[in-house]
Structures are given as structure tokens and as C-alpha cells.
């Protein structure tokens, strides 16, 4: 029995589907309306057959930061191992695999400005692990293949920089996030997808997600692009898809509203001037002529 959530990245959902096809029982927990997976909901589905729980540390679309330590305790209480996809959290929110008590955690370099195609897997001591790439026995037999030393070094440098700036950047970006939400709320056609209180640390500081009535995501993306702004309708990894986001479906948002989803993400080089310029373009995007 494997337990995950309905709002995971496809990097987790796709392997879960494969395990299901191979005979594993897979449970996909739904979050609450704000995107949080509640420990009590996890405890309710854990049984003596549970072997693995995988819950993302933070959602890449709406920004909800999960209570990983409490979820890991629930999994361990049922005798299951716990993995977290921490790709979206690294450099944006506090990450402490020891304090979380997780058995495994996944990270990716490109989310902190490192080289693309490089990742890291944290494994707690004595966590069972079966390599998927076998052959030469590199990386202590965990992943065979000639190591990408330059990529690993670049990842390490990027993590060092991002984590060193994390607290300061989180404060700066959360102020910009709150400014965006407030400015967008001034338009009747726009509503926040989740309730992010000003200064909230329960959501990522760099993501704003709204629903726009009367316009589809693709139209919004094209119009903002013509004004010089890059936005998306969901996860950046699924920007090629026009289907409503599985995350929004899991939050209970119907197709009509989900088709008007707009995700605005910010980074280290986003400024207050950029945010104000974006807000200044919104009225023209909504009333195109």
C-alpha cells in the first residue's frame, strides 16, 4: 500500500500509476480547500500494509506548504517510510530533513538557479534503497553512470547561495506576493485561488495563483506575453497542456473556473517595479482592444 496525494507533481504521480499497474494499492489523498494535506486524513488511510508515503513539501501551483514533520510522524506510526518531493521548497522555504524526520527527500538544481538536469536524493541512514540505474556501481551503487561532476558542483554552489539568501528573499518575495494579490483583487473578474493572508508563511513567498472569470488561461498567457510578461496557467512543467490542472480539480474547483487559472511566479531578480508594471498591465489584458 502506497499513499500519496492528488496534488503531487507528475514526477510522483506517474511512478505511482506504474506501481498501481504492477499490483500495488495506491491511495491519493485529497487536500483541503487551501491545498493542505491534513495529518488526520493521512492517519485515516494508513493500515498495516502501508509501506511508503510520499507528500510534496510545497505545491508548485498554489504554493501550499505541507506540515511535513507531522505527516512523517503519522507515516512512521503506521510503520511506513516517508518521502517528500522538496523540489519546490528548496531555497524558498525552510528545509530541514532532520527536523522533518523524513526517510527520503528529492531536490532539483534548476529550481535554485543551478544547472538543469541535475538532482539530489537525500536518504536517511539505513533507509532501504534499490537502485534503478545499474551497471558501473557509481555513487556507492545507488545510481550507476559516469557522474556529472560539473553539474553537481554547480548544484552545490546554487544551493549554498539560495539557502544563504532564503530568509531575506522570503521576506522580500512575500511582500511582493501580497502586493500582487492585493492589486489583482481590485479587479472584479479576478479571485485568489487560495486564501493567502498577508505575511503568511504557510504558502510559498514566490507564487501567486488566481482564477479569472470570462477568460481562458491560454488567452491570458498570450496577452501578458504581448505585454512582456511570462505567466502560466499551472505548473511550468505542464505549460504545453491546455487541460485544467489536476491540482485545481483536487481543490474542488470546477472546469469552468479552472480554465481561467493564472499562475504568476517570482524569483531573485523580480523587483517591486516589475510587480507594479505587471499590475499596470492587468486592466488592459482583461479588457483587450
From TrEMBL:
Alphabetical list of InterPro entries matching this protein: Aminotrans_V_dom, Aminotrans_V_PyrdxlP_BS, PyrdxlP-dep_Trfase, PyrdxlP-dep_Trfase_major, PyrdxlP-dep_Trfase_small
SUPFAM superfamilies the record matches: PLP-dependent transferases
Span of domain Aminotransferase class V: 1-278
Entry keyword annotation includes Transcription regulation: no
Keyword Zinc-finger: no
Main EC class the enzyme belongs to: transferase
Molecular-function annotations in GO: cysteine desulfurase activity; iron-sulfur cluster binding; metal ion binding; transaminase activity
EC numbers, comma separated: 2.8.1.7
Cofactor: pyridoxal 5'-phosphate
Keywords: Aminotransferase, Iron, Iron-sulfur, Metal-binding, Pyridoxal phosphate, Transferase
Highest taxon, organism lineage: Bacteria
Chemical reaction(s) catalysed: (sulfur carrier)-H + L-cysteine = (sulfur carrier)-SH + L-alanine
UniProt similarity note: Belongs to the class-V pyridoxal-phosphate-dependent aminotransferase family. NifS/IscS subfamily.
Protein name per the record: cysteine desulfurase
Amino acid at each position: 500500500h502506497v499513499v500519496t496525494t492528488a496534488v503531487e507533481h507528475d514526477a510522483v504521480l506517474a511512478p505511482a500509476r506504474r506501481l498501481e499497474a504492477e499490483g500495488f494499492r495506491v491511495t491519493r489523498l485529497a487536500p483541503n480547500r487551501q491545498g493542505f494535506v491534513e495529518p488526520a486524513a493521512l492517519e485515516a488511510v494508513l493500515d498495516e500494509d502501508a509501506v511508503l508515503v510520499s507528500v510534496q513539501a510545497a505545491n508548485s501551483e498554489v504554493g501550499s506548504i505541507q506540515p511535513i514533520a507531522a505527516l512523517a510522524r503519522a507515516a512512521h506510526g503506521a510503520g511506513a517510510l516517508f518521502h517528500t518531493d522538496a523540489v519546490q521548497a528548496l531555497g524558498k522555504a525552510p528545509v530541514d530533513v532532520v527536523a522533518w524526520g523524513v526517510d527520503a527527500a528529492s531536490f532539483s538544481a534548476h529550481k535554485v538557479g543551478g544547472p538543469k538536469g541535475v538532482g539530489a536524493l537525500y536518504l536517511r541512514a539505513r533507509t532501504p534503497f534499490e537502485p534503478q540505474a545499474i551497471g558501473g556501481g557509481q555513487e556507492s551503487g545507488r545510481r550507476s553512470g559516469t557522474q556529472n561532476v560539473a553539474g553537481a558542483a554547480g548544484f552545490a554552489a546554487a544551493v549554498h547561495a539560495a539557502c544563504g539568501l532564503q530568509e531575506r528573499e522570503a521576506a522580500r518575495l512575500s511582500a511582493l506576493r501580497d502586493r500582487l494579490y492585493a492589486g489583482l483583487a481590485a479587479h472584479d473578474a479576478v479571485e485568489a485561488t487560495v486564501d493567502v493572508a498577508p505575511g503568511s508563511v504557510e504558502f510559498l513567498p514566490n507564487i501567486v495563483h488566481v482564477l479569472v472569470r470570462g477568460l481562458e488561461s491560454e488567452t491570458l498567457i498570450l496577452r501578458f506575453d504581448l505585454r512582456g510578461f511570462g505567466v502560466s496557467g499551472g505548473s511550468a512543467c505542464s505549460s504545453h497542456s491546455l487541460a485544467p490542472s489536476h491540482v485545481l480539480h483536487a481543490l474542488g474547483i470546477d472546469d469552468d473556473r479552472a480554465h481561467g487559472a493564472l499562475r504568476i511566479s517570482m524569483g531573485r531578480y523580480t523587483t517591486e517595479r516589475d510587480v507594479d508594471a505587471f499590475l499596470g498591465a492587468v486592466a488592459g489584458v482583461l479588457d483587450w482592444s
